[in-house]
Amino acid sequence: MASITLQNLVKKFGETVTAVAGVDLDVSDGEFMVVVGPSGCGKTTTLNMISGFEEPTSGTMLIGDRVVNHLEPGDRGLGMVFQDLALFPHMTVFENIAFGLRVDKIVDTEVKERVSKVATTMKISHLLSKKPAQCSGGEAQRVALARTIITQPQVLLMDEPLSSLDAKLRIEMRTELKRLHEELKSTFVYVTHDQAEAMTMADRIMVMDRGYVQQIDTPLGIYRKPTNQFVGTFFGQPTMNIIPGRVENGGSPKFVSEHFEMSFAADAIPGSSIGKEINLGVRSENVSIGDEGAAAEVRLIEPLGDETLVFFSCGNEEFLVAKVDAEREFSPGNQIRFGFLPGGMHFFDVESGVRLE
Amino acid sequence: MAQATIKERKSLSAWLAQEKVFRLIPFIMVEATFLLLLAIPFILTIYISLLKWRANRPFEQAYFHGLLNYVRVLTTEDFWWALGRTFYFAGTAVMLELLFGFLLAMLAYKQFRGRRIYITIFLVPMMVVPVVGGYNFSMIYIDSGPLNQILSPITEAMGVNPRIRWLSHPIAAQWAIILADVWQWTSLTFLIFLSGFAALPQQLTNAARVLGASRWQIFWKVHFPLLKPAIMIAVIIRSMEALKLFDLSVLLTFGGPGTSTETIAFFLWRQVWQFNKYSFGAAASILLLFMFGTLIFYGIYLLVRERDIVEEERME
């Protein structure tokens, strides 16, 4: 089994394009690490450097305690599942799964034995004589996984493997992948742009943007304490409300935005934000609608079944959103009052976006 | 009776009034062109092949000869020699073209500085008019030509007269033609294989690399099987063309020395235009049409089958 260590890993394409600008990461043995970010954030490049398809411009990569910078992909003891699965179209499912054993010239009887064992685990025994093109999306996914795990790699890399599946199957496969991780106990590095996938599967998440690491933390840590506005708005559905304004201290601290004012208890507001222009970030579940607080008008309703999203505004076209119990009924045009739960407010610096503590 | 005619006329006008008639109009043109350009000469050729007619006699004196011309063609030894030689030329040339085209494409499919220029240069021979290409080669091979100039240090060291007359030796002349054909048409196989290589998905190579395959294994287990359709296309297209080899024979050797570079196309031409054996030539060309036709259909069958397998896999 193996841990992965990245030390100040940099990748530049030519002189001008910096895809990855210094990543430091420790993935411990058996951890499920998800690397997440919008497209172009450098997450796939980072993965390609770990796998060996891209050579880092500078920095060190270790798998276990071995520096792998100059090792061929096949010598790094890792397995990889690709975005488009990359099954060999001219081979049967059996030969696809057996490929890693065939190139090692393992004897036929052992190949058969190991393929059928893996096929049973992945529930694809009935597909072995078919070609990949004859498999459905979910089946092909399992074949790709089987091909990867048959060589018992210590590290499994996955590059958005679920992106080609439909929504329902994608959610099923998430559970399946987590189960697989429990069984194999190998180290997983999983790249995705889908924050929900990251939240549900990861032990820890690394958030990247424009080549820089934004935050490395557990899913709940990232959700509850985003280090900056980018991370805050990237995670969570619906997107966190961001309200530009200023924190004033006239006796008790007060948040003043263009359209409303709100006062808080002194301990609800970080001292460093007082007197500053800030962006206030509040998740929809931390917005309360009741008898107290600032006045607003309901504009849109989105029922989710168990809960309802209420979009409202304070006399402007910027909508704020609150998540309320489905029992409570609202309709567009209702006059309401809203407030923010003390623990659910994030104060971000206007310039840098950094969270103020 | 009269009623039937009216009915027929009615149905004809009704048929003409239909919209689908307009869809047929282009076909009428195509069919007319086909009849004019292909069917009439074809039928005439068959007709002539059944006559006893030489061009030095008036056509009125020609008389019906049955299948005797065909028998005569099939019993002419030179016909079979020319045919065999054609297959030998085509087979050797196409094999070499495939090999060189494949190797060049392998070198050129990855990105590197000057790749475009490299590719353009390798495509030039294909665009040269065959007659010009043939003429150039005849200049290269003549006894005071550049080939002998280049070889002169070696030939002189060996004590051989450097003015070697390549095209006067049967085997050297055959290879001279094969090499000229290879020079001209390697471009085409290069182009076909280049697009074949370009269509190989990079992810498959990466997948094989992660699974520990060596370059050699990746080539034989992944790339080569995926290039099979491109190889088939190159073989079929080139073979069809190479079997018609004519211009190089004419320009370089005029079939000689003796008949050692006489291809089947050249043989036909000589029978008809030099010996005026019109009926004989007609019969021979009909026979060749059936022989090559069978080959071509078999080739197309293989090609379609290959494509169907690929498509079938994609469909499911």
Q: What does this protein look like?
A:
The complex is a heterodimer of chains A (357) and B (316). Chain A has helices at 43-51, 93-102, 108-121, 137-149, 167-184, 195-201, 219-224, 229-234, and strands spanning 4-13, 17-27, 32-36, 58-63, 66-67, 78-81, 155-159, 187-192, 204-209, 212-217, 241-250, 252-257, 261-263, 277-282, 287-290, 294-303, 307-313, 320-325, 335-340, 345-349. Chain A is of the alpha+beta class and 357 residues long. Chain A folds into 2 domains: 4-234, Rossmann fold, CATH 3.40.50; 241-349, Nucleic acid-binding proteins (OB fold (Dihydrolipoamide Acetyltransferase, E2P)). In chain A, strands 6-7-8-3-9-10 form a 6-stranded mixed beta sheet, with helices on both faces. Chain A is elongated and about 80 Å long. The two termini of chain A are 39 Å apart. Chain B has 13 helices and 2 strands; from the N terminus they run ααββααααααααααα. Chain B has helices at 2-17, 20-49, 68-75, 77-108, 115-127, 130-141, 146-157, 170-198, 202-210, 215-242, 247-253, 264-274, 278-315, and strands spanning 51-52, 63-64. Chain B has a two-stranded antiparallel ribbon with strand order 1-2. The longest helix of chain B has 38 residues, at 278-315. The A-B interface holds A 51-53, 72-75, 78-80, 82-84, 86-90, 99-100, 102-104, 131, 133-134, 147, 151 and B 201, 203-204, 206-214, 217, 221-222, 225-226, 313-316.
